[in-house]
Amino acid sequence: MISDFVKGKKKFDYPGSIQKGIALHRAIDTFTDTHEATKEAKEVFRPAYRLYSGALVDVVFDHFLALDENEFKEQGLFGFSQQAYTMLDQNVQWFPERFALLFPYMKEYNWLYNYSTRGGTARSLGGVVRRAAYLTDSETAIRLFEQHYQLLQDAYRQFWADLKPFARQQFEEL
After folding, report:
1. Whole-prediction pTM value?
2. DSSP codes, 62-131
3. Which has the closest alpha carbon to 30: 40, 42, 38?
4. Which of 15, 31, 33, 84 makes a 20 to 30 Å CA pair with 158?
5. Exposed, middle or buried: residue 15 (CB in 10 Å: 0-12, 13-18, 19+)?
6. How far apart, in Å, are the Cα atoms of 46 and each of 4, 16, 137, 141?
7. Burial per residue of 86-97, b for 16 or more beta-carbon CB atoms within 10 angstroms, e otherwise
8. Which residues, in sequence order, are CB contacts of 119 under 8 Å at separation 6+?
9. 3-class DSSP state of 10
10. What is the distance between the alpha carbons of residues 49 and 140, in angstroms, rounded to a whole number?
């Protein structure tokens, strides 16, 4: 969860298990950025959002992951989200400052679970735009998400089928 908030060699400031998590996250990010399905999905957003198209696709893929019938079978997405927040609560001492400020809102409004709704996903798309340096219009992102829903879902399915074995292999190698 914190990897996006830990820059460069700062990862060495953390215990070994967290360093491994950061390394895994970074490997997944690189895999994601170079995957053909991700590149196709980015094209939906690129004309309006250029460099931020990748961040928007991350949100969209989180939406489809939250809805994926093959995931979260044991406890459901809600149970998974609660377990994730509990685990994070046990490690707050390791939170980078920016994540520490964000986490209470993530937990209170259950962002992980709310990716399963189109409204929650729309709020997350809006959050990307609000945090961007020069973007102001989130309505276009939401409209593009709705207009290209099936294309984006197909891209997610293709991507996820390749990511799961990649991530498992990377995890085992760490």
Report:
1. 0.92
2. HHHHHH-TTSSTTTHHHHHHHHHHHHHHTTGGG--HHHHHHHHHHHHTTHHHHTTSHHHHHHHHHHHHHH
3. 38
4. 84
5. exposed
6. 21, 37, 14, 10
7. eebeeeeebbbe
8. none
9. helix
10. 9
Tokens of 92: 């707050």
Domain boundaries, the chain: 16-173
Radius of gyration of the chain (CA): 16
Interval 42-90: pLDDT, tens: 999 999 999 999 999 999 999 999 999 899 988 899 999 999 999 999 9
Name residue 68's amino acid. D
Q: Average pLDDT over the chain, rounded to whole? A: 95
